[in-house]
Amino acid sequence: MRYRPLSSKLYSKNRDLFVQALDRGGLAVFNSNDIYPISADSTLPFAQHRDIFYLSGIDQEESILLLFPDAQEPEHREILFIKKTSEIIAVWEGQKLTPKQATALSGIQTVCWLHEFEKLFQLLADQAEIFYFNTNEHYRAKVETQTREDRFIKWAKAKFPNHPTAKSNFILQKLRSIKDTEEISQIKNAIDITEKGFRRVLPFIKPGVWEFEIEAEFAHEFLKNRSDGFAYSPIIASGNNCNVLHYLDNNQQCKSGDLILMDVGAAYGNYASDMTRTVPVSGKFTPRQRAVYDAVLRVEKAAMQLLVPGVLIKEYHQEVGKIMTDELIQLGLLDLTMVKNQDPEKPAYKKYFMHGTSHHLGLDTHDYGLVDQPLKGNMVLTVEPGIYIPEEGFGVRIEDDVVIQEDGPPLNLMENVPKAPDEIEQLMHQR
Ligand code: GLY
Ligand code: MN
Ligand code: MN
Q1: CA quadruple 286, 292, 294, 297: dihedral positive or negative?
Q2: Which ligand is nearest to the CA of 381?
Q3: Best substitution site from 384, 400, 414 to test ligand 1's pocket, by max atoms within 8 Å of Cβ?
Q4: Residue ranges of the domains in the chain?
Q5: Spatial CA neighbour of 163 closest among 171, 155, 175
Q6: Helix ranges (DSSP H) in 115-147
Q7: CA dihedral 329, 335, 337, 339 (to 10 degrees)
Q8: Which ranges in 21-141 belong to alpha helices (H)?
Q9: Across residues 365-387, what is the average pLDDT?
Q10: At residue 95, does pLDDT exceed 90?
């Protein structure tokens, strides 16, 4: 791994919090992700499943974590299984974790080889009263492949059909939504790299540059700073592409007079950052672009102030909708009659701002967090209002990442990423 790992203490704490939520006799298992095939012998790069990583810090394929706090033998309460390494494997595949290294990273004392899993699982299943399986329950999940976890669950259910089962994911959704200070500092590392990338592209952007050339500048800056790469597929959208919310082609030439919307974040140590900035290709906003930009900025600032403990995301989104509605009226995009006659289920502002304002951020870009859970201190969220006007050929989104504070408004982790339009224009002219 190229990143500096977090302490094993954090992972021990995460496991303690997790097992405290289990019913008596509960045994939980967590699998790594598969390495996904392309064709022939090509594969996608390995990306660790975020749950086993959260509970162990182990970033290696084919690892399994077993947690069983009521096991008869103390050494069976936490077991990590890793693929067996040897001198031959080291020659062909490179270094894999030794048991000693795995213990140092995770704080887990019992480390076994993967081929020992079935036998040990069967022994412990006899002592267990309930299995905790980790199905993907994220509100946005749409998974069409069978994961390693799915295969394990199928195997375990067939082998032990009489064991009752429960969901680990519900517990993890709650735990992972509240970040430890070590996690926040890792997110900040990712953000600092994103900031470097943004500062690099500002003087690089000019009429005639291609969207993919800007993407390449970000990639260069990210990788040379030990980032894992992009936290999600980057959106580098000029002109009317700004209005395609999930624009990923990044294959157009940027024209003078257009805006360019960049939704880009570096990942670091498996933690994501998520930034959007919108800048003028020529280095100067037109008066109309500037008016829309200022409106989005005001909405963003006002929205941030609303993110305090106790608030429900759904109510927050409704409040932001009202603030946005006022701005859209000022910009002449909505009028009072349209607003008066709007369907409350489909408010008028959605024509120009059709996505949510905030989501949790952490190990996943759209991180865990139960939708009906009120905000709490140390949750990390994005704030990302936008106004999209295809008929005028441009759109603006601004996105920062913030930490909820126990008292008062959140801390903006992207405070140092240029956002004020005058500063952006000035930085773009420092060519
Ligand atoms: N970049 C994904 C998002 O902003 O939600
Ligand atoms: Mn986002
Ligand atoms: Mn984003």
Answers
A1: negative
A2: 2
A3: 384
A4: 8-177, 181-428
A5: 155
A6: 117-127
A7: -40
A8: 50-56, 87-93, 99-106, 117-127
A9: 96
A10: no
Q: Are the C-beta atoms of 381 and 401 separated by less than 8 Å?
A: yes
Bridge partners for 28 per DSSP: 67, 132
Average pLDDT value for residue range 407-411: 95
Whose Cα sits closest to atom 4 in ligand 1? Answer: 274
Q: How far is CA 170 from CA 136, 167, 177, 178, in A?
A: 9, 6, 11, 14
In this model, does residue 135 exceed pLDDT 80?
Answer: yes
Q: How many Å lie between the centroid of ligand 2 and the Cα of residue 173?
A: 18
Q: How many helices (H) and strands (E) does the chain have?
A: 13, 17
What are the pLDDT digits (tens) for 217-246? Answer: 999 999 999 999 999 999 999 999 999 999
Q: Is the whole model's pTM more than 0.70, yes or no? A: yes
Q: Which atom of ligand 1 is nearest to the CA of 235?
A: 1
CB atoms within 10 A of CB 280: 23
With pLDDT > 90 as the criterion, what percentage of the chain qualifies?
Answer: 94
CATH says 8-177 is which class? alpha beta
CB atoms within 10 A of CB 152: 18
> 57-76: per-residue pLDDT in tens?
999 999 999 999 999 999 99
The residue whose C-alpha atom lies closest to atom 5 belonging to ligand 1 is 366
Q: How far is the CA of 49 from the centre of ligand 1 (A)?
A: 20
What is the pLDDT at residue 431? 61
Residue whose C-alpha is closest to residue 420's, from 295, 276, 297, 283 = 297
Q: Which fold has domain 181-428?
A: Creatine Amidinohydrolase (3.90.230)
Residue in this structure with the two tokens 């994501």, named with its chain if needed: 272
Sheet containing strand 259-264, strands side by side: 235-238, 259-264, 275-280
